[in-house]
Amino acid sequence: MKMRRYGLVLALPLALLVGCGEADELKTTATDTEEVVAAETEQQTAEPKEEVDVQESELGSNQIYMKNKALDVNETIGSIQFAIDKVQTSRLTVEESYRELFDGKEAVTVVAMNVIVENTIDDTVSFHPNQATLVTNTGEQVTADLWHSDDVGGEFLGKVKKEGNVLFFVEAMPEELTEVRFIVDGPFDANYEQIAEGRYEYKIDVTK
After folding, report:
1. How far, in Å, CA of 68 to CA of 151, rounded?
2. Which whole number is the average pLDDT over 187-203?
3. Minimal CA–CA distance to 178: which of 151, 205, 144?
4. What pLDDT was estimated at residue 44?
5. Distance of CA 41 to the CA centre of its chain
6. What is the pTM of this model?
């Protein structure tokens, strides 16, 4: 097993690694001068609150916990150039009509990673990062959700490049996650023979 340590969407309506627009400002009108002064004074003395990034979609309400858009995971795996350049954790409150897709759960924690995969030769190569395994510091082991992840795996018929999100759903709350391990099997050729090591593992920091 090859070990690497690096510090540190949905294919459906939820775009997990894309920021939302700014929320509309709450506008109020005060007719009394004293009320206006009091409101301004209170605003100046109040402690600044951390902004909450929430994305709304048909699937539900997705509250972002942490995101790192500057990951530097790069690996040459046989003829495959593989990279993970973004990671994000969030808590998705699932709309009732979609809970069947999540085993009836009302909420799930989402770990999303953006991967870039490129085959550098003319030969056909198969590689499946969208079927990777995630192991968390909380003791969970899950397989990537193939249905919701982007199509970034499978056959690469020559010099093909694919990029997209690989999604994992875990039970732990986002604040409980500090480190995850992304584990993926190595690529193989058209004869189903390995062209690199059998398995690759990357440790990724997901603390806020």
Report:
1. 22
2. 97
3. 205
4. 53
5. 41
6. 0.78
Distance CA 78, CA 199 (A): 12
Q: Write out the E strands in 7-160.
A: 54-57, 60-68, 73-77, 80-94, 107-119, 124-127, 133-136, 141-143, 154-157
pLDDT in tens, 143-154: 999 999 999 999
Q: CA 145 to CA 133: how far, in whole Å?
A: 10
Element (H, E) at 33: helix 33-45
How far is 177 from 137, CA to CA, in rounded Å?
6
Half-sphere exposure of 104 (CA within 13 A, CB side): 0
pLDDT digits (tens, 9 = 90+) for 70-108: 999 999 999 999 999 999 999 999 999 999 999 999 999
Cα 138 from Cα 178, distance rounded (Å):
9
